[in-house]
Amino acid sequence: MDVNAAVAAAAAIAGVLTGVIAMLAFRWSEREQKRPTRSSLHTDAVLPPGVDTVLSVLRSSAVVLDEADAVVKASSAAYALGLVRGGKLAVEPMLQMARDTRRDGEIRQVELDLPRRGTGRGEALAVSARVAPLGSRLVLLLVEDLTEARRIEAVRRDFVANVSHELKTPVGALSLLSEAVMDASEDPEAVERFAGRMQIEATRLTSLVQELIDLSRVQNDDPLEDAEPVRVDELVAEAIDRCRHQAGAKQITMAAGGAADLRVWGNRGQLAAALGNLVENAVNYSPARTRVGIAARSVNAPGGDHIEIAVTDQGIGISDKDKERIFERFYRVDPARSRATGGTGLGLAIVKHVAASHGGEVAVWSAEGQGSTFTLRLPEAGAARDRAHQQTARHERAGGAGLDEEAGRSTLTSPESTAYETLPAPEVLP
C-alpha cells in the first residue's frame, strides 16, 4: 500500500514538473517569435519608410550598407554585376568610398573598370558609382553600367574618324589634280590625263557620299512601311545589269540560276542595293576570266520559309581573321585593291543592316585562294508579310518600340549550307 502511494506521488510530481517545463518552453518560444531577426532589422527597422520601394524601381544597381559595412539591401542587378558577395560589398574602391561618405557625409562619384564576372578574357565592365548618406547610419551606393554606352560612343567616334579620313583622300586628290591642271594648261596631253584622274576621284567621292546616305537610310528607316512582294529574279537581273560593264572589262562571266518565281517581302530599293553590293564585290575581287554565280532557292525553316540568294565568286577569298570583321563599316580585307577598285568599305555594312531590318541575315563562306560565297537569307513573301502585320500590331500596342539595329547577325557557314551549291547549273546571261 505504501509502495503504491509513493508511486502515485512520484507520478504527480513528474506531471507537475512536465507542465511547468511546457509552460516555460511556450513562454520562451513566444519571446523568440517576437524578437526581431537580422533580416527584419535590415529591411523593416533599419531602412527608412519607402526606401525599399524606391530602390526596387531604380534602373541603377543599388546597395545599402550599415555602419559595419554589412549589406542591408541590394538589388538583383547588384548581384548580377558581382558587386555583392557573401553579404559584403566585393569592390574595394566602392567600399572605401562608402566609409569616407559615412565619416563626413559628402556625396562621392567615380567611374571604374571592373573585371567581368565569369569571363577569363579580361574584358572590363565600365561602371559609374555614386555614394550618398542615407539617414544617420546607412550609406546608399548606386552603380550605373556604362559598358554599352561606351561601346556605342566608341563606334560613333570611329565612324566619324573613318568618314573624315575617307572624305579627305578624294578631296585632297582633287585639289592636287586641279593645281596640276592649272600648271599644265599649255600641255593638252597632261591636262587630259589629270582630268581623267579627277573624274575617277570625283566618282569615288560621289560613291562614298551615296553609300553614307544609303547606310544612314537603312539604319533609320523602317523598310516594312513600304514593303511589297518583290520577285527575286528581278533583283538578280538588276544586280547583274548593274555590274555588267565591270564584268565585261575583266571578261568575267556572270550566271544566274536556281528556283524560279520566288518572292520576298520588303523594300525593293533596299533589297536591290544589298544584292547589288554583293554582286559588285564578287566582280571587283575576282580575277579576270573567272565566273560569278547568283542563285536562289526556298528553304524550309522552323520560323517560316526563307529565300536564300547566294553569290559565289572565284576570287582571292577571305582569311579566317578577316571573316569576323568584314561587315564592319570601312573595313577592307585588301585596302590596296579597294583603292584600285574604288571600294568604300561600306557595301557589306549596308547588306548586313538591310538583312537585319527585313528579319533575315547574311552569311559568308570563304577560303583563301578558293573564292567566297555570300548568302542573303530573307523571309519568304507570305510568311514575312504575316509576321510584319503581327509586329506592327505589337508595335502599336507597345507604343512604338523601335527596331533593334543588332537584330540581324552575320554568320559563318559552309558551302553545303548555301543555295548555290545545290542548284542546277545556272543559265549564262548575255
What are the salient characteristics of this protein?
single chain, 430 residues, alpha+beta, seven-stranded mixed β-sheet, five-stranded antiparallel β-sheet, 14 helices, 49% helix, elongated, disordered C terminus
The N- to C-terminal Cα distance equals 130 Å
Residue windows where pLDDT falls under 50 for at least 5 positions: 34-45, 395-430
What portion of residues belong to β-strands? 15-25%
H/E topology pattern: HHHEEHEEHEEEHHEHHEEHEEHHHEEHEE
Question: Biggest sheet, strands in spatial order?
Answer: 15-13-14-12-11-9-16
So what's the overall shape?
elongated
How many helices?
14
Mean pLDDT reading: 75
Number of strands: 16
Radius of gyration: 35 Å
- Please, what is the oligomeric state? single chain
- Class from helix and strand fractions: alpha+beta
Give a quick account of the main beta sheet: strands, pairing sense, barrel closure: 7 strands, mixed
